[in-house]
Design a protein that fits this description.
The structure is a single chain. The chain is built from ten helices and 17 strands. It starts with a strand and ends with a strand. β1 and β2 form a beta hairpin. The strands form four sheets. Strands 3, 4, 5, 8, 9, 16 and 17 form a seven-stranded mixed beta sheet that branches. A six-stranded parallel beta sheet has the order 12-11-10-13-14-15, with helices on both faces. Strands 1-2 form a two-stranded antiparallel ribbon. It is an alpha/beta fold and about 325 residues long. It is about 30% helix and about 25% strand. It is globular and about 55 Å long. The mean pLDDT is about 95. The structure holds zinc ion. The site of zinc ion has 6 residues, from α4.
Length: about 325
């Protein structure tokens, strides 16, 4: 099969690789679409020791199953797998297991390729008329869905009537804003410095997509989702959250600068992390996407897998207005 292989930091090569071999309980998928994630970018930059080269990245996969009980069906692939005997899996929180595995991290190759292999239980069927590129959004949207519902539980009051704000208009941030709107949040703000990205968010239906200088007043937001996780966004989140509010942190950059622990203490603001999603949340998101309940999903851009290296360079240079680039093998 052809695969886009990362051979060294910043080097992606389209080359022939052995087809994945079938395994007990797993299926081979002909990849129709695979999204480029922030975590792929992190690895491409050489900043992820868990992903040594050479490696096939890509975990946001949709395609057609070639073998096993689902042969012939089109699916979105949940890339996260935890051994079923793990205590976290038995508690319904498999994504927190120290034994979790994810496609694109050894021992599991990713989906920047014509073929991929995944556990059969991780395959979620999609309608035949659903564009593969839109189904590939299931993974990042599931991350956003989990973040929203995690902090809504912590908020302890209904989302309708609550002012909610998202920092960062990439795929996770925009998806979080769309999930908040779908969940009935009273007011949804998206703060994003890049004008092209704000325009993408407005076209997706987020009317309050604003630059940082036009953010609402300090201490006015019940719920703040930091989808960037940098010092400047942590500081903004700590200012914007109202007393008794919730901040959810979805970034993975090192460091904790910007966190105002004194204000969190005096105002009883809950600060929490969020990571991935449960298998049930992934299924719910596939259904929401397929039914069009998160909008027309036109905030993605497709490119050929062979042009993956150029797509990565465009993301690095900030030349991409879409919130997500999806590669088509
Ligand atoms: Zn991802």
């Amino acid at each position: 099969m052809k695969a886009l292989v990362q051979t060294a930091p910043h080097v992606l090569v389209l080359r022939d690789e052995p087809d994945p071999a079938p395994r007990e309980g797993e299926a081979i998928i002909r990849v129709e679409a695979v999204g480029i994630c922030g975590s792929d970018m992190h690895a491409i930059h050489g900043h992820d020791a868990r992903r040594p080269t050479p490696i096939i990245l890509g975990h946001e996969i949709a395609g057609r199953v070639l073998d096993g009980p689902l042969a012939g069906r089109r699916v979105a692939v949940n890339p996260l797998w935890t051994p079923p005997d793990c205590r976290f899996a038995q508690e319904g929180r498999p994504h927190l297991s120290p034994r979790r595995e994810i496609l694109s991290m050894p021992p599991r190759p990713g989906g920047f390729a014509e073929l991929a292999r995944a556990p059969i239980e991780n395959l979620v069927e999609i309608p035949d008329d659903m564009l593969a590129a839109k189904a590939a959004l299931a993974e990042p949207v599931a991350v956003a869905y989990h973040a929203v519902h995690h902090c809504a539980r912590l908020l302890g009051r209904p989302l309708p009537g609550a002012r909610c704000l998202v920092l960062g208009g990439g795929a996770i941030g925009l998806a979080a804003a769309l999930v908040l709107r779908q969940a009935g949040a009273g007011e949804v703000w998206l703060i994003e410095p890049n004008a092209a990205r704000r325009e993408t968010a407005r076209r997706a239906g987020i009317t309050h997509a604003e630059p940082p200088e036009a953010a609402p007043a300090d201490a006015s937001c019940a719920l703040v989702i930091d989808a960037v996780g940098a010092a400047v966004t942590r500081a903004a989140a700590c200012r914007l959250a109202q007393a008794g509010g919730v901040i959810v942190h979805a970034g993975l950059l090192p460091g904790a600068d910007g966190l105002d622990v004194r204000r969190l203490t005096l105002q009883e603001i809950t600060f929490t992390g969020t990571y991935c999603y449960t298998p049930e949340e992934f299924r719910v998101v596939v259904r929401l996407l397929a039914e069009g309940r998160l909008g027309a999903l036109e905030w993605l851009e497709t490119r050929a897998l062979a042009d993956g290296a150029a797509a990565v360079a465009d993301i690095d240079a900030g030349r991409v207005a879409a919130a997500k680039i999806v590669l088509l093998p």
